[in-house]
Automatic annotation (TrEMBL), chain A:
SUPFAM superfamilies: HMA, heavy metal-associated domain. Residues 23-89 form the HMA domain. Keywords: Signal. Residues 1-19 form the signal peptide. This is Heavy-metal-associated domain-containing protein. The keyword Phosphoprotein does not apply. It comes from Flagellimonas yonaguniensis.
UniProtKB/TrEMBL annotation, chain B:
It comes from Flagellimonas yonaguniensis. This is TonB-dependent receptor. It is found in: Cell outer membrane. Residues 1-17 form the signal peptide. The keyword Disulfide bond does not apply. Pfam families: CarbopepD_reg_2, Plug, TonB_dep_Rec_b-barrel. Residues 119-220 form the TonB-dependent receptor plug domain. The keyword Membrane applies. It comes from the Bacteria. It is a multi-pass membrane protein.
Length: 123, 744
C-alpha cells in the first residue's frame, strides 16, 4: 500500500515535472547573511533567463523563486548563485568565488543573521 | 520490502581523454527497464558544478580530478553518492523514497512588498516620528520634517499652510491611501480634517510624482496611510488639552470579526470655547471651534486567495467662529456691531479599494479603487459671503506585472474623475463641472545594483483642460556604496479653484478683481508647469553610528499660472501669467545619531520663488528665502514593558520675508517692505509608563515670538484698510499642552 502511494506520488511529481510550468514556484536554501548577500543572490538568480521573481529571506536563508520551467531549471540557478560565491545544498561556490564576496558577507566563517547591523538599503 | 539493487553499469570507456561524464538516471523498477527520470539533480559534492537530467533522463557533466563524489538526487527518491575516479558513462537507477526531503512550495506572503531601490525621492514618516509633534492633525504633522515648510495661513483661523519646494499646497497632490484628498473645496482646511492619531504613516515625494496618481501634482505628492483595523490596537484613547482652551479626544475601536474581516471605528472630536486674545488687538487669536469626525473602516484580507479590500466611510462636521472677541453671531452677523466670521463645513467621504495579488505570482497584481466625497462649506467673513459645494468622484484601475523578470516592471491602468462645483461668492453664482478620463503606463527598470529608473506617461481627456499628454521620469544611480544620485522630470496641470484656494482674502477689505482672458475656468486657463530636479544622498557611519547627508535642488517653471497678486492693498487681482514664474529650491540636510540615544537632524533651505506680478517680477510674498531647521531627539533605553522617556526639541530659523506692498495705505496701516527674520522653538517630553499608557507634555513657540500687527486695521474692521492676510509669524504666543495615550 505504502509503495503504491509512493509510486503514485512519484508519478504525480513526474507529471508536474513534465508539465513544464510557465510560473513554477519553488524555494530552496542558499547560504548568506546580510542585505548585500540578498542583493547578490537575487541578482544572480534573476540573471538566469526564465527566472521571473527571486526573493531571498535573510533569517530563513530561503530563496523563493518563480521560474519559467521551459527556460530554466533549478541547477542552472544554483550554479549561477555558486558562481557569485553563495553555497546551496547541492553546489558549493569555488574558493575564488567565495573570496570575491564583500568581507561582511563571509557566511562560511560566521553564519549569523546580520540583517540588523549591516545594511545596504539605500533609500 | 524487497531490496533494490543499485546497479552501476560500467561500460567500456574510451581510450582517449574525456572531460565529461555522460549518463542516464532512471527510476528503479523490478524489470530494470530504462525509465528515464527527467529533472534529477546531478552534481559533484562540494563543487559549483551541477546539472539536471533532460526529458529522457540523460545528462552530461564536466569531469574534474578535484572531485570524485557524484551526487544524484531527486524529490521523492533517495539521494545516492557515486565515487567516480575517471571519466566514464554512468547509468543509475534511483530508488523511490517515502520521505520528501525538499519542501517545494511555501505559502506565505510578505505583508509588505519590499521595493528595491526606488527611483523617486521619497521620505516616509512613520508613526514614531508622528508622535514627536503630538498635536493634532495632518497640517501639524510636518513640524519635525524639513522637506515640508509649515506657514501660517491667516490671522484668524489658526490654520497652517504647507509648502514644498517653495510652492503652496495646491501645487502638491495630497492623497489619502492614494485617493486625492485635499483638493478643490477642501484646499484651505482639508489637512485639519485628518486627525493625527488616524495617521499610520506619510510618504512625501519631492518633485514630479508617479503618473499613476494623476496629472495634477506639480511640486510633489504627500500620501497618508491611515490606521488599518487589522494592525491597529483594539482600543486606543488619546486626550489632549492646551492652555489656549483647545480640547481633543480621539478613540479607536478595532475588532477582528473573522479570519478575513476586521473593522474599526475612529472617532475624533475637538473643541475650543474660551475666547483668547493675548495680543489685545480685539481679535481672537484662535477660532472658537467644534469638530466631530467619525470614520468606519472595514478590511478584508485573505492572503491565501490573494484578496485585500477596504471599505471606508467618514462623516465630518466642523464649525469655526473667528473675528472680534465678543462677536455674537445671533445678533452681530452682517451688522457693524462687531466683525465676525463663521466657517461651517460638512463633509462625507466613502471609498472602496480592492486589491488582488496572484497567489503564485507575487509580482503580479491588480487594484481597483473608487471614491465619492461631498463637501459643503457655508461661510461669511464680515459682509463677504462664500459658500461652496463640491461633489467629487474618483476611480482608478491598476494592473502591475513584469516583463520577463522583476528587473522590468510595469504598471498600467485607467482612471476617471468627476468634480462638480457650486459656489456662491458675494451673491454671484459660479457653477462648473469637470470630467476627465485617462490611461497611464509606467515602466520601471532596475539592475538591482547601480541603476534604476521609472518612466511613465499618461494621456488624459478633460472637458476643460482638453486632451493632453503627461510624461514623468525618475532616474537613480548609485556610484558607490550607500550613495545615490537621483534626477526627476515631470509635467503637471491643474484647474485652479481660485476662491477656495485663496479664501483668506474674504477676511479683508480688498476688492476682488478677476482679469480673465476668456479661459474656461473662472475665465482663466489651466495651470501648467514643468518640474525637474536632482538630489544626492550619502549614508555614512561616524563614531560607528549611522547618519546621512543629502542635498537636493529642484526647479519648477510655470508655463501658465493663475497669478494671485496681493501687491495693491486695496485689491486682490487674479490674472493669467504674463511673463516668468518659477520656483527654485535648494535643501541641504544632515542626520546623525550623535550619541547612542540621541538623533540630530539639521537642514538649511533656500528658496528663490519669483512671479511676474502687475508691478514686475517679484519674490513670492510671505516666504522666507532662507530657513534653517534642527531637531534633536533623545530617548532613554526602553525597559521590558516599554517604559521610557522621550525628549524632542525643534528649532526653526526663518530669514526675512517680503511683505506684499502696503505702500498705498496711510502711514499707520503700512507694514514696510520686509518682515525681520525670527526663530521658533518647540519641545516635547513623553513619559511612557508601559506599552499601554503614556503621557506627554509640550510647548510650542517657547520663546513667545508674536506678530502684533497681524490684523491690519483692527481698530476699524469695516474700514478700507482692514486686512488679515499678511501673516508671517505666530499670532498666539507660547502655548503649553499635555495629553495622554492609552491602548490595549
Amino acid at each position: 500500500m505504502m509503495k503504491r502511494i509512493a509510486i503514485l506520488a512519484v508519478m504525480f511529481v513526474s507529471v508536474v515535472g513534465m508539465a513544464q510550468d510557465k510560473n513554477k514556484k519553488t524555494t530552496f536554501e542558499v547560504d548568506g547573511k546580510c542585505e548585500m548577500c540578498k542583493m547578490r543572490i537575487e541578482k544572480a538568480a534573476l540573471g538566469v533567463t526564465g527566472v521571473k521573481y527571486a526573493s531571498w529571506d535573510i533569517p530563513t536563508h530561503q530563496l523563493s523563486l518563480v521560474v519559467d520551467e521551459r527556460k530554466a531549471n533549478s541547477m542552472q540557478i544554483k550554479s549561477a548563485i555558486a558562481a557569485v560565491g553563495h553555497d546551496t545544498k547541492e553546489l558549493k561556490a569555488t574558493q575564488e568565488a567565495y573570496d570575491a564576496v564583500h568581507p561582511c558577507c563571509k557566511y562560511r566563517e560566521d553564519n549569523t543573521d546580520d540583517s540588523t547591523t549591516h545594511k545596504n538599503d539605500n533609500p | 520490502m524487497k531490496s533494490f539493487l543499485i546497479i552501476l553499469c560500467c561500460l567500456p570507456f574510451l581510450a582517449s581523454a574525456q572531460d565529461t561524464i555522460q549518463g542516464m538516471v532512471m527510476e528503479a523498477n523490478p524489470d530494470n527497464k530504462h525509465l528515464g527520470l527527467p529533472g534529477a539533480n546531478v552534481y559533484w559534492q562540494g563543487s559549483p558544478i551541477g546539472t539536471m537530467t533532460k526529458e529522457d533522463g540523460t545528462f552530461s557533466i564536466p569531469y574534474s580530478k578535484e572531485y570524485n563524489k557524484l551526487i544524484i538526487s531527486f524529490v521523492g527518491f533517495q539521494t545516492d553518492t557515486l565515487t567516480i575516479d575517471q571519466p566514464k558513462m554512468v547509468h543509475h537507477w534511483l530508488q523511490p523514497s517515502n520521505e520528501l526531503d525538499e519542501v517545494v512550495v511555501k505559502q506565505k506572503k510578505e505583508a509588505v512588498q519590499k521595493t528595491f531601490f526606488l527611483a523617486q525621492n521619497v521620505v516616509t514618516v512613520n508613526s514614531a516620528e508622528l508622535l514627536k509633534a503630538a498635536c493634532c492633525n495632518l497640517s501639524e504633522s510636518f513640524e519635525t520634517n524639513p522637506a515640508i515648510d509649515v506657514n501660517f495661513n491667516d490671522a484668524l483661523t489658526g490654520t497652517k499652510r504647507i509648502e514644498m519646494l517653495g510652492l503652496t499646497s495646491p501645487y502638491l497632490l495630497i492623497t489619502q491611501e492614494n485617493i486625492p484628498m485635499v483638493r478643490g473645496a477642501s484646499q484651505a482646511f482639508g489637512l485639519t480634517f485628518t486627525p493625527g492619531t488616524w495617521v499610520e504613516s506619510i510618504q512625501i515625494t519631492k518633485g514630479a510624482g508617479s503618473v499613476v496618481n494623476g496629472y495634477e501634482s506639480i511640486s510633489g505628492q504627500i500620501n497618508t496611510e491611515l490606521q488599518k483595523p487589522l494592525t491597529d490596537v483594539p482600543l486606543f484613547v488619546n486626550g489632549y488639552a492646551n492652555l489656549n482652551g483647545r480640547l481633543e479626544l480621539n478613540t479607536h475601536f478595532n475588532t477582528k470579526l473573522t479570519d478575513e474581516w476586521s473593522t474599526g471605528l475612529y472617532i475624533h472630536g475637538n473643541r475650543r470655547d474660551s475666547e483668547v486674545d493675548n495680543n489685545n488687538d480685539g481679535f481672537l487669536d484662535n477660532p472658537l471651534a467644534n469638530q466631530i469626525n467619525v470614520m468606519n473602516r472595514w478590511q478584508y484580507q485573505n492572503p491565501e486567495k490573494g484578496w485585500v479590500s477596504f471599505f471606508n466611510v467618514r462623516y465630518l462636521n466642523d464649525e469655526k467662529q473667528v473675528g472680534e472677541s465678543g462677536f455674537n453671531p445671533e445678533t452681530d452677523r452682517f451688522t457693524t456691531n462687531a466683525w465676525g466670521s463663521e466657517i461651517n463645513t460638512e463633509r462625507f467621504d466613502g471609498s472602496v479599494k480592492l486589491g488582488y495579488v496572484f497567489p503564485n505570482l507575487p509580482f503580479q497584481s491588480f487594484g481597483f479603487q473608487a471614491s465619492y466625497s461631498h463637501h459643503a462649506q457655508d461661510s461669511y467673513f464680515g459682509f463677504n459671503t462664500y459658500d461652496i459645494d463640491h461633489e467629487s468622484i474618483y476611480s482608478n484601475l491598476l494592473f502591475n506585472s513584469i516583463i520577463g523578470n522583476t528587473k522590468h516592471k510595469f504598471k498600467t491602468g485607467i482612471s476617471f474623475a468627476y468634480d462638480g462645483y457650486d459656489e456662491l461668492v458675494n451673491g454671484t453664482i459660479f457653477t462648473r463641472s469637470d470630467r476627465s478620463a485617462g490611461a497611464f503606463f509606467e515602466y520601471s527598470y532596475t539592475n538591482l545594483e547601480k541603476l534604476s529608473f521609472t518612466a511613465g506617461a499618461r494621456f488624459d481627456t478633460h472637458n476643460r483642460l482638453g486632451n493632453f499628454f503627461t510624461p514623468r521620469l525618475h532616474v537613480r544611480y548609485t556610484p558607490w556604496e550607500n550613495g545615490s544620485f537621483r534626477g526627476s522630470f515631470g509635467l503637471g496641470r491643474r484647474a485652479a479653484n481660485i476662491f477656495a484656494e485663496n479664501q483668506r482674502m474674504f477676511a479683508s477689505s480688498r476688492t476682488i478683481q478677476l482679469n480673465g482672458n476668456g479661459g474656461n475656468i473662472y475665465g482663466f486657463d489651466a495651470e501648467k508647469a514643468i518640474n525637474y530636479g536632482v538630489s544626492f544622498i550619502q549614508k555614512f557611519k561616524w563614531f560607528d553610528r549611522p547618519g546621512d547627508f543629502s542635498i537636493d535642488f529642484y526647479r519648477t517653471d510655470f508655463e501658465n499660472q493663475v497669478v494671485v497678486d496681493w501687491e495693491n492693498p486695496r485689491e486682490i487681482v487674479f490674472s493669467n501669467l504674463d511673463g516668468d514664474s518659477y520656483a527654485n529650491s535648494l535643501q541641504v540636510e544632515l542626520n546623525h545619531r550623535v550619541l547612542p540615544n540621541v538623533e540630530v537632524r539639521a537642514a538649511y533651505k533656500f528658496y528663490d520663488v519669483k512671479t511676474e506680478y502687475q508691478t514686475g517680477l517679484l519674490q513670492k510674498p510671505l516666504q522666507a528665502r532662507h530657513r534653517f531647521f534642527t531637531n534633536v531627539g533623545y530617548n532613554t533605553q526602553p525597559k521590558e514593558n516599554g517604559a521610557q522617556w522621550r525628549f524632542d526639541y525643534t528649532f526653526n530659523l526663518l530669514g526675512e520675508q517680503r511683505l506684499p506692498s502696503t505702500g498705498a495705505n496711510p502711514l499707520e496701516y503700512q507694514l514696510g517692505e520686509f518682515a525681520d527674520g525670527y526663530s521658533l522653538m518647540n519641545a516635547q517630553v513623553t513619559k511612557v509608563f508601559s506599552n499601554k499608557f503614556e503621557v506627554y507634555l509640550g510647548g510650542e513657540n517657547l520663546t513667545n515670538f508674536r506678530q502684533y500687527d497681524a490684523v491690519l486695521g483692527a481698530d476699524d474692521p469695516f474700514g478700507d484698510y482692514f486686512d488679515t492676510t499678511i501673516v508671517y509669524a505666530p499670532i498666539f504666543g507660547r502655548m503649553l499642552y499635555m495629553g495622554f495615550r492609552f491602548k490595549i
